[in-house]
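Need the bound structure for histidyl-adenosine monophosphate, inputs here:
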Amino acid sequence: MIQLVRGFKDILPEEASVWQEIETTARNHFHDFGFNEIRPPVLEEAALFKRSIGELTDIVEKEMYTFAGSKGNLLTLRPEATASVVRAYIQHRLYAADPVQKLYTIGPMFRKERPQKGRYRQFYQINAEVFGIASPYMDAQLIYMVTGFFRKLDITGLRVHLNSLGCPECRARYKAELTAMLSSRVDNLCADCVRRLDKNPLRVLDCKVPACRAEVEQAPSMIDYLCGDCAAHFATVRSALSDMDVPYAIDHRLVRGLDYYTRTAFEIQTDELGAQSAVAGGGRYDGLVALLDGPPQPAVGFAIGMDRLVELVMARKPAGVVAPDLFFAAMGEAAWRKAFEWSSRLSDAGVRTEIDFSERSLKALMRRADRLGAKYVIIAGDQELANNSVNLRDMKTKEQIPVPIDSLVETVKQRIVN
Ligand code: HAM
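Answer from helper R.:
Posting the output first, comments after.
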């Protein structure tokens, strides 16, 4: 039997209902904050991600699904959506009508990571990206928006981790200082960090190896190196979050795994998911639109990991498919013929119906209706058809009323829909 590819998964109907609820809540919530949907494709030129995420990141170095296209160009299944949304913003000149664009997108991403609980090779994100707004209030509003979204889903126990990564100028000063400090302790670092030290020293800060963590404890903090403008930006983000009563913790080690960030970086974390604690991550990326040959426009955004969010929601309430409003316990060819017509018309009218076409006893049919959680059952056999009247049973009250066949669709519709 052919099985799933490792690291990929099926979302089965019971769980899919939770995904739908999350998507609907996100769409409504983001809509109220002024966002519009954009749907970029999952396949892009490899160069888009190399340039934006950065050649020396784990994602680009080892996690992308890249293959040759028919013209010999390299194509990549997107490992994230930000680069694609930026490409679309530039390619379709969305900035020409209004540089301020608030866009969201929901869909699958692909990263060839080592699969484990909460980490998949195809996973889903809800992304929100804002272009054309440099104000720190926008950063704070996005963080407020995402925490409010989690609140709507009754998710508690989340922590906002906040840091500032500065701008290219102040970060260069910090990097030099960090590299100098870590170089003097290189013997204590893991092999990966020794390599990172040269190419991307900030990544040493979020290494999980205990020896590296111990070294990093004493490392200088980026926040102490921010230039005047970056420090002022960060101070406003912080005071705006306090104004909105959003608790947060400054996290000096939060550097994010993508190179495009400037200034604000944040993650929403939980203790409920084991090692994969980040449910959402994002930040400002003021240089990316220009880096991808667009007009210099500031930008800020985040992505929520849906797979992890679904786990949090399911830990709080059991998932399940929606029960039928009405189950037809029809017995025999003549009854099936009528019930098929009634159920089709009632479904059209907004009643969720289910019909059993198998040769079964009334007792077995009622057991199935019960198992499905049907609210009402119509019992129809030869006898009922001969009497021109079927029975409508309320499964909760057990009350049973006769319904004339001629007016069945109207009567049932009125009783169930209203
Ligand atoms: P990211 O931190 O790489 O950021 O991913 C965001 C979220 O996606 C993570 O916090 C996590 O919940 C989820 N996620 C990432 N990788 C996996 C995986 N292998 N399996 C399951 N869930 C995963 C970005 O992707 C940025 N593009 C976010 C952003 C948008 N920054 C600005 N705008």
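Comments: The chain has a mean pLDDT of 95. The chain has two domains: 13-167+227-316, 326-416.
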